[in-house]
Batch of 2 targets.
Target 1
Amino acid sequence: MTELPILVVDDEEEFVSTLVQRLRKRGWAGEGVLSGSAAVARVAANDFAVILLDMRLPDMDGGQVLREIKKIRPQSRVVILTGHASASEGEEGIKNGAFDYLLKPVEFETLLEKLQAARDRDP
Amino acid sequence: MLKGNDFPEQPNAGDQNMTFFLDRLTSLFRTKPRLKPAELQAAFRAHYKDFRALLTANNNALELMAEMEQALTAGRSFGMAFVRGNCTALSVNIYKMIHHLTRLADGRYTELDQPFRAITKQLEQVIALRSPSAEGALILTMAEVDASAVDQVGEKMANLGEVRNRLGLRTPDGFVITATASRHFVEADALQVEINRRLKGLDLDNLEELYTVSAGIQNLISNAPLSPELEEAILAHHQQLATDSEDELLVALRSSALGEDSSNVSFAGQYRTQLNVSREFVVQTYREIVASKYKSQAIVYRQQRGYRNLDVHMCVGCLRMVDGAISGVLYSRAPDDPRSPYVIIQAAPGLAATVVDGSGATEQFRVSRTPPHPILHRQSAEELSHSPLALTELQAAELAATGVRLEEHFGTPQDIEWSIDRCGLLYILQSRPLGRPASEGGQDNSSISSHTVPQIRVSIVGRSVRQRGLPAMQQVCGQADDKGDAVPCDPLTLLSGGVCASQGVGCGPVFMVRSNLDLLRFPKGAVLVIETPYPDWASLLNRAVAVVSETGQPAAHLATVAREFGVPAIFGMKQALATLENNSLVTVDATGGKVYAGRIESLLALAPPKPNLMAGSPVYKVLTQALAHITPLNLTDPASPFFRPDGCKTLHDLTRFCHEKAVVEMFTFGERYGFDDKAAKQLVVDAPSQWWVIDLDDGFTPDFDPESRYIDLNHITSAPMQAIWQGMTAFPWAGPPPVSLGGFGSIIFQSTRNPNLDPAVRSAMAAKNYFLISKNFCNLSVRLGYHFALVEANLGKYLTENYVSFQFKGGAADQDRRLLRIQLISEILSEFGFRVEQKVDAMTARIEKKPGTYLLERLKVLGYLLIHTRQIDMIMADQDMAASYHQKIMADLRTLMDKTTPEA
């Protein structure tokens, strides 16, 4: 069990709620938001162990959200999880400090491994 | 093979056919003019336009047919989009041919519409054919499942049902959500329609697009609602399963696709299996597993193996989790030896998943197939990174006995997943035919008779050999140097060891894949270097030339797919990521367990050919059935009374009929409209020749006097005719070869330059030779001596309209010698890039869709051959003479083409 929760940022409500539920089942506290601005606001208010970030959000571009998050908390560990595969977008994300770049749909066990790796990384 | 618009089958029919043409031609010039020249020209232009459009369509149709036939034999992968697209394009082109022929013939031949519609309707039926899908229950319990339920539960679950209900072996309790259920699920709300829409036109070579479309479709399915009926049924069966359990019931949801696990198609690890699923996630997980039919690697795999999406139905087994203490894989025979007297057991602590997903270290045993099943070999503790497992001799014996029983029941060696729970009870989780036996991988290097590399002959091109491999393209080994001698030297071995997961040798630049990001950037033709052989990497196997993984076993799913695709793979190659360098060129010898720097030709030469992945697959069958309505040629003889519209049984017949009739219509144009006999101008080169030229459109210069009976080359604008003429006249003909064969000694020949040499004037053979030309078109029918040849070329505005075709038939010698001559001509034309087809003593040669300059050079070759191969059939029995002729011809042609190198 980690002290800090996970933030799931994705505009698909069903996906967010199912994932948060599954994470909880495996001992990970988590919460979800459905927009970029909500994500930035949550990060400003709270420290998260890992932020799982979709790249296609209704109000903001995922890359922009990533930069904002890093501005507020440079140490945050952000894992990109996207359904729109793009090598250039991925490279950009890693350059801007994302910990990993995952493609949807990801097997839950694989996701857990990545989240663990991100959490356990030295800040 | 495709016959093109061949000469007729019967040797004499061609001559009859020719006589017919020649009669027509003769009559053409006898008829009195009825139309004024301007009207005539306009009518001719309109007809000629149709004629050319028909030829282009004919050309395209033949090309499409050839492409489809080639797809069957070439072994490359193609999908339904290819079959559907080509059939449609073919139908369109044939429709065009019929349309243009009808116009050319002033409204005749409309009856072609009937066979055309009949054939295309049959084609549509073949293409639209769906696999039969039986309706049945939404759910079957494992107690109800055996082999007979395969169409409802998929092979994986049907086999497991057999194991449980026929053999009485222990399998986990559970139920199967059937094919009927998944079909109802995806067909509701037009979900399948949307899925098909997204898949249409998907470019599998574009990895970003592939992953994005795959994710989108899976998301669509994962979020689609289940019918209340199905959801209730799933939960009710789950409830029944839970009745006896004390704690929370956890189940495994296993995909069991229809078609999966059949003996030569593994679909290994393509679809999802989810372990430890609790009640609240069962329905959601079911949707995700149905969605996993569209995982990127599954899409690629289906395309490679010739499966349509509609061929695969996702059934899902919902089985109580086994609390595994030791689990693993059991092969009832050694994969490389179908007669091995032992079974192979791979075991790991916990669940079997770590063995098959390639992620865990395993322990390996060989256990005798004969009771009391002693352990013959056990991997030593030093080889293991962990302490030895507690698999007892008794358990090993029980496993071996079970493996033998399963093999006997299913009639073929089995690949079995098993688990022993904490109470010591053995469960069978899966049993399927063992893929690719005999010399197809799955063995460790210590046991295989690997080919050795005693003296690899290497020439090092560059000097700067880096420790970690060589820069791509710099090192090529095993090739002869300038003097033709190969320089023996030791190849630089970069890595050695591991286990062979898939035999073979591959060479390419290293590309390491550590993350999804690397995956998206994986280039075609690279060597895939990974730490763990996850099944997910399978989507790269149609791009990779070889795989090197630091961990993993031949039992891993990725290894199975690599073997199927014929991609060499070494697993368990320690330090691969640290030793190899991205973009350095390496040769992976999976059979020998080594990775070498550079390209080693001598090893690559030993690599087995790639398997034909498509043969026997549903898409392959559809194409085969479609071709039955396309390529057979029934209308071979235009003189036959059956050569008529209702004799057209295939699309090829229609092209043949249309082409034949179009040519006749062009030739009879003058007859029908009254063609001015002054239209044929005698070609004058120094003196009047035996060659006549007819302008079809803009083949003469504007200043040419239409009243003149003669024309010289300066007034001819036709580029293809000029090229043919150049070829004909570049070298003087040496005359007939010196033969003395009685009557044949007096064989008549006609020189292109000497109009007086025309002693055959009394026979049909003496007919004049006509060039029918426009600026970019030329049709030349030639009867020289005893053979007939037809050259036709069109150099259009578009590359797709460009072609040169050559038909050749006949001769005076016996058939053997005529064949030899055709052989000689075929060889020469092949060297110049022609696609040559030969049938009896007739041949056709074609080049299409090449630039004008390229085609003009080829026309010179044809012009040369027209003249210089006359009567050499008479001496073809003499091999030396034939060889010297070949040599002389090639030398002349090279000179003629201004040192242009012939192309293979």
Target 2
Amino acid sequence: MSETALVTGAGGFTGTKLVEQLLGAEWDVVATDLTEADRGQFYTETDNAPHPAYDPTLVNEHEEVPFRTADITERETLEPIFENYEFDVVFHPASLFDYFADWDQLHAVNVEGARNVAELAATEDVEQFVHFSTLGVLGAAGFDEPKSEDEAYNPHNEYCESKVEQERVLHSVRDEQDLPLTIIRPAPIYGPGNQYGVYHILLVVSKLGFAPIYRIYPRSKQLMFPSIHVEDLSRIALFLSEKRAQSIGETYNAVSDCINQDELLSFLGESLGVPRIRLPTPYRVYKLWSKYAEIHSRRIHEIAQERDKRPKIDAPITQYLSNNMWYSNEKIRELGFEFTYRDPRRGLWDFMTWCKERGVIA
Amino acid sequence: MSLVSPVDAPVLFGCGMIAAVIYRRWLASRNEDWFLFLGMLVVGAFWVSLFVGAVGNLPVRGILPVVTTESLLLAVCFPLAYPFWFWIGAWALFLLFGRQPEQGGVYWLYRIEDRTEDFESSWES
């Protein structure tokens, strides 16, 4: 007998791919999300630049899947869904992933919204609640070893702070109402459909017209690039629900093998057909430069906000330049998961092709 | 006899930048070889005028070439380095503003508005 799943945020980038993955595994899926019009109240939409994380064409793509409109910040809109269906697993990728959003919005969607879904799932005795957090809750790693799941929280921007609060709320629901909780912490997600986050790295290299390859010396001080292909992420969610006996109560990093940032830029330069400029740089000089880039992008971000526009690059994205975002995927691999795109360069190649075909990068 | 025209290096640098602007705005989307053609045209013109000016003692470009008997090596290497000055000027502009109309170079990072959006990708056009 097939199992039934509820997927929140089903109109978003991850939610859509997760629905496809579950349908492929012959699950019965109920999808929920806001209507396109209602999303405007949460996402920073401006005249010239709608928020790119949401592609309206993704909504209602799957006609065979019941789509129930609901707003996770309003519990009463979710209740009829739980009354009409019996779910084995609730997948909760719904989130406000917008570095431009203010704290009140982030808190309403990411913290209170997650509480609403989790409490209803606990009340209805679902077998598993699979929650999508972010690796950003762990913050930067040192240079000796990657960060694993059991490290302390160290968020570096408001979005990640909201995800920390979200995890804490879910832990409290787990403790108080026996929520069978599994947390996935994805690295920055890329893949066909993505136009926010990893996409911006491709965009910058493409728009610069050259790939600046910072070769940091000493070579022991390498900054890493974490990422996960959306297909691998949705496969991980499905895998953990199939292994729920082992995965309930656990947290898993969802990240391909991290590669050096200079390897990444070299690959992007070559793939995008732009000249690669190698810049051997002492670590201290690089830190100074990246600090300047952070300050500069924050200033651009502020000016854009004053003019009610979106910056081309949201300031928190540049934090990936100055911090070593190095995370371990050992725990999920030890459970038996095999990545399709373990080397992110394979997945990025496909992603670049998708971007070029749609003209979203030159 | 050797000849050196000391202002040629900065002038070629400037010519490289101007040629890069022309190439980027109007020629890149037609044929990427245009940059090489422009370079050959400009550098060739400098070589010819330098030679004619030195041999005929004429201010072909408004300035008489400096005639020197000090260093044959300098006199040979200096004109041979003309393509380099042209190329480095063009590269400076490409880094700042991009090589194709749809690119923005380093300047793109400093602007709120994206003025490159209206240009079609070169590989598509």
